[in-house]
Amino acid sequence: MTTIYDVAKHAGVSPATVSRVFNGTNVSAEKVAAVREAAELLKFTPNRTARSLRLQSSEVIALVIPDIENPYFTEMARGVEDAASEAGYSVVLCNSDSQTEKEATYLGIAVAEHMSGVIIAPASEKTDLTPVLSTGRPVVVVDRGTGYDVDGVVMANRVAGVAATQALIDAGYRRIAYIGGPEQIDTAVERAEGWRSVVSASEPAFDTDALERFATFRVEGGREAMQELLALPHPPDAVVAGNNLIGVGAIQVLTERGLTPPQIGVAVIGSLPFTTLSPTAVTVVRLPARHMGTTAAKMLLERIRGDKQPARTVVLRNEVQVASALR
Amino acid sequence: MTTIYDVAKHAGVSPATVSRVFNGTNVSAEKVAAVREAAELLKFTPNRTARSLRLQSSEVIALVIPDIENPYFTEMARGVEDAASEAGYSVVLCNSDSQTEKEATYLGIAVAEHMSGVIIAPASEKTDLTPVLSTGRPVVVVDRGTGYDVDGVVMANRVAGVAATQALIDAGYRRIAYIGGPEQIDTAVERAEGWRSVVSASEPAFDTDALERFATFRVEGGREAMQELLALPHPPDAVVAGNNLIGVGAIQVLTERGLTPPQIGVAVIGSLPFTTLSPTAVTVVRLPARHMGTTAAKMLLERIRGDKQPARTVVLRNEVQVASALR
DNA sequence: GTGAAAGCGCTAACAT
DNA sequence: ATGTTAGCGCTTTCAC
């Protein structure tokens, strides 16, 4: 490994000058040239570990997500990466697998590795951010809320729930069920509220409890809940899926039973990037995941650069893609 | 930030002893207790940057993939993460976006950050591994081959191509087209060879050139190629998709035109994790992506621990899930 | 504009 | 078994 000293020797300057050349401070043109040439020749790459030990910070940000296999989060990761790499930062992707302990481990690593900041989609409301906040590092919370006074980027969840349900009502469906995520997760709760408000308004006697199901935010969760709903004495004629994977699971079950949408109405909150459905059969409330990622990254970078304004929360609007095929 | 010196002072020992306690060497029971207590009290976390500067290595491995939004690669990432975190290593996920320059940047970062090793699914055959190999760090190449003498884990691509095509033949299809990936990528070429060998054997006069298409390994690539094939004067009665995303694109186009499988036979090389298709309509040759990830991680960890045996390449068998609905 | 030297937090000889 | 100390590669005062 070639160091700043090797380069200095070859260029006939001091190590300090080499450092200056690589950090853009006042150095005479000739010395700059000499240093660059020597660096080229010796294939010198600055040692980031040494640099970050000295600077007490590294140009890396941590992105902690609960499910690396969910396209919603990878799309977001993509957005974070775009914004970060444009600013010369790299992104470490950490998969908490929805486990608070794993999440805590990664947050610990983030500080122990001197990372500049963290973007996190919390695994639950138990997420403890103090280890990183106490070091003064900025945190941006995405997708979900937390009790901490930090920047956040969230989706307009209630609005998404309303839009999904309303599209189904407009298409003529009446018994609209809802399959949401875990009861403790606030995004899930907000989306459910949107659904509940629309169905209750449409029919005052609507028995929301009978048609609401809580699932995991996974394909399997959607499958199980859909099966339960279909087994009901008086099954629904439509369903709102609380996230993309639940939507996939629900549609799989319907397809297997020959109840292809729009025979039963289906609206999904979240995009379905790899489905093979006709786009006219299902209403999709697209959540701008990639945009959420870039927004979060930009906010974090501002904080890293020393921005001290009070914490902000950005709420992202979503775009509704209504099924055109009605039953 | 509390350091080893703070802990040493509180515990009434030397910094070296604190270090020893955290690295499991001979320290008397009393001192261990004193150090642990002080560390607890002061919320001490070892500084990984300093540690890796000193050790010239960090317990981090880099995983470089060409498309973070492809479930095939995220599934693989999941496997890598499982094996690595079990061994106390963390994984930095880098998205090269199929660009050789981005890939080179990340490889540079991997060495500049003293990462212990890298697992890479190369963006192309131009990938230059020398910057990392020359530092003595181990590399495991996954999914695709390279010209380097390093460990690798690949799928049985030719076999997969044969299996996909044979399933279609067995189901009675005769004009079987193939939509593959970019011509320069060896996995794509091998899978195509499998297809070609089966169709040529089935009918000596088979005009393979007319029915072979090269696409990008993306949904859009599959869509375009499928459209071209359908516009042919004498279109195919079945198609083999060279990867999961191409399969999604092809099936989307077919569905939009009302040609739902198995009206046209479809076989896909790679799993379709988020499709809503009836599983009986499409033949899927599952590629064990997660297993590829864990295998690669284990091989890399062995090398990191000093294993010096000659380079190995592991070929992973795949599992065929034949469509049961025949036309 | 440039160099000398200290120090970021840790580990590993080397002494004791 | 434990302490002392040098040094990993870099940045940055402080002199000149």
From TrEMBL, chains A, B:
Residues 2-55 form the HTH lacI-type domain. Keywords: DNA-binding, Transcription, Transcription regulation. This is LacI family transcriptional regulator. The keyword Secreted does not apply. The keyword Transmembrane helix does not apply. It comes from Microbacterium murale. Pfam families: LacI (PF00356), Peripla_BP_1 (PF00532). Coiled coil: none annotated.
